[in-house]
Amino acid sequence: MAEQKTAQQQVREQFKVAETNAQNMLNVWDEAFFATTEWTFGMFQRGLRYNHELGSQSERVLNEALESYHSFYQDGFKSWQNYVKGISEIGSRTL
Predict the structure, then answer these.
(1) pTM surpassing 0.70?
(2) What is the spatial distance between Cα 58 and Cα 51, in angstroms, rounded to a whole number?
(3) What are the helix and strand counts (H, E) for the chain?
(4) Helix, strand or coil, per DSSP, at residue 1
């Protein structure tokens, strides 16, 4: 009977060890899952912030380019008007 209790105690001890190992494994998986999830959401948030900043910079650069083009166009148009006016004055003087 003593040997049987010893065998039952060994089985119980082995089950306790297996249960402890399984619990430790679940804890590790749980921590890894939440750490990975937190990291993923952090990266997603940083990506959104980066894209927003990049979009703002792109919009600012586009606005500056349009303003430069607009002033360049106006200067060219004024130069053309002055050229045509000068040609008209020369033409009216010769007639």
Answers:
(1) no
(2) 10
(3) 1, 0
(4) coil
Buried b (16+ CB within 10 A) or exposed e, 59-82: eeeeeeeeeeeeeeeeeeeeeeee
Q: What is the DSSP letter of 95?
A: -
Q: How many CB atoms lie within 10 A of CB 12?
A: 10
Side-chain-side CA neighbours of residue 89 (13 Å)? 6
Residue 63 is classified by DSSP as H
Side-chain half-sphere exposure of 76, counting CA atoms within 13 A: 6
For the chain, the residue count is 95
Residue-by-residue pLDDT tens, the chain, 95 positions: 556 678 888 888 888 999 999 999 999 998 889 889 999 999 999 999 999 998 899 999 999 999 999 999 999 999 999 999 988 888 887 66
Quote the DSSP letter at residue 45.
H
